[in-house]
Design brief:
Length: 91
Amino acid sequence: MRFLIDPMLADPGAYPGFPGSAMSHLRNPLVPLPIPVADLAAADAVIVTHTHIDHWDDAAQNMLPKAMPIFVQNATDATTIRGQGFTDVRI
């Protein structure tokens, strides 16, 4: 099985820097993905440790199949991700 963990799949510079960080002036992601997004989207399941943008971004939410199993840490995150249209969310 192939697990995708904490996907941030946006193009480089898609999001502003993180306030309060040492490099808050730099936009995120800082670098392109090393492999095509389609290869990542072919994973068997996703593990989302928490729903901050650097672990679960809009690009991932839009690119990943809505029926893909998504494993989360708690009921709050499960509710959030189900609300984004994912149908197989497991705590």
